[in-house]
Amino acid sequence: PPPREPPRRHRDSQQQRLSAIEQRKAELNREKMETLEVKTALAAAQKLSHELDVKAAGAREHLEHVEETSRNAKRLLANHIAAKRDLATRHELERAIRALDAQSKQLRTAQARGERHEES
Fold this sequence. Notes:
Helices cover about 95% and strands about 0% of the residues. It is mainly alpha-helical and about 120 residues long. The protein has a domain at about 10-90. The radius of gyration is 51 Å and the shape is rod-shaped. It starts with 7 loop residues before the first helix and ends with a helix. The relative contact order is 0.03. Keywords: Coiled coil.
């Protein structure tokens, strides 16, 4: 006897189940692709984050170097200002010494004249 076909209702039910399975399979494949896209985006974000961390560390190091250079420049400037002040003070002292020498010489000259005047 020829194989019997299942009743139409049974065939429709199988077709609906098969269709539901195919639909669920398509949804799972979509979710799988979305998950893969998310993982790829996450990996790219992590790589970018690492690169930014490396650049930030380099920037911090550079900033520390700049700050150290700035401190050294300030110290050199302070030393330069102090040296100029010391030089000005030295020149003032030398002028004062020359003035005192001149006064001393004048006094000695006047004293010598006075002694000569008394002798005559």
